Write the structure tokens for this entry.
Amino acid sequence: MNINSLAFRLFAAAVLWILVMLPIAGLIIYSANSRNVFQDFDNQLITHAEGIAAWNLEVKEPVKPKHLNEALFEVPISGYYWQMQPADGKDGRRLVSNSLATSMLPSPYARKIKPDENGYRWLDVEGPDSQPLRIIELMHRFGDNENGRLYSIAVAARVDWPGARVNEFAESIAMALAIVAIGILIATYIQIRFIMAPMRTIEQGLSDIRTGDAEKLDAPLPSEIEPLKVELNALIDSNQDIIERARTQVGNLAHALKTPLAVIMNESDEHKSPFANKVSEQAKIMRAQITHYLDRARAAARVDTIGRVTDVQPVAASLQRALERIHQDKGVTIDIVGSDDAKFQGEKHDLEEMLGNLLDNACKWCNRRVRLRVDTAQTRSNARVSMLKLTVEDDGPGLKAEERAKIGKRGVRLDETTPGTGLGLSIVGDLATSYRGSFRLDKSQLGGLKIELELPAATNNPA
């Protein structure tokens, strides 16, 4: 998943939402449960304390309650305790639960802890056997008047028991929320893949158009994206119309210029004079230049055509056979190495013209050997774009650095004894530039000249 993709942004947003909202939800649930557990724990202590007080409503001296619905009051050091003792600290009858045995519970009243709105006093303290206890205390007066004896009724229980319940619940809710988070992430990933599927369909369709496997986007798409398909198809049709009009105008211009030039050349050839010879010479130069620029205009129109793809191997093999036959007197051998399935993103005629000029130039200057290497590689700026690299080398005399700098300029020839117009490598450079490629010269390992030509390669992008 590309970090700069819509899918990554949607997935990252979902992850961020989970990391923020689920912990908050877990904290809220944990807090509510903790509050309820400890509230129930306090209510249970209140119930036991009021139960003890109820057993002593109509008596003048403290009596031991017969039952409090809690068996742990009878088990020594069980964690559940109660006691009744005089609040004034003077001698008097003192009653305790069997669980408390000979121990005593501290009195919140004696520690001057203020009662809550219901008259209960609370104290968290360490009890028998170092147990953490929570104590509730209420005051009960024996007798019928205010002069009756004031007693403290205290009930205590281990406070770590509800704490353990809260911790167990926290672990359970954390595990549950983790499972929910994983489920949401999986569902989000599946949803994103499902939602982005039409975009991959468009991507594959455009790739098919670019490589010539299709002319338009024909795959069915959701109604929200259907207008995009319609606009893209309209853009492709408009591109084709513009190119066709450009080709027509270039053809009309070629006919309009070549016919008068042919008349001028014919007339000048019939009159043998220095002036006629000069006119004929300049007319031929004009015809060569017009042909060159018209070819360049046609090439520029073909470059912008969508879906033109050419297999390199058949073109190279055809040129190999033709040039070896033409230069058979020198015994020239052309070796083709590298990729067999490389494709050029462009017109076959342009590839034949560029590669033909390079190989023909190498055959003219080589001793006997010419090598053509065909490779494809991804560009540094965009890993999804591939370039076709054609390298032509020969074992001839080669060129010096300053001579290589001159080569490729229109009409420049370093050796006038070799047939040619000086436009060959210039045409190659112009065509390469029109295809947004590159063209450079260097020294070959074979001893002669190495020419590297980079052009756009046709590849199918994976969906």
Q: What stands out?
A: The helical segments are 6-55, 160-210, 226-270, 274-303, 312-326, 348-365, 401-406, 424-434. The chain is about 50% helix and 15% strand. Residues 217 and 229 are 6 Å apart (CA to CA).
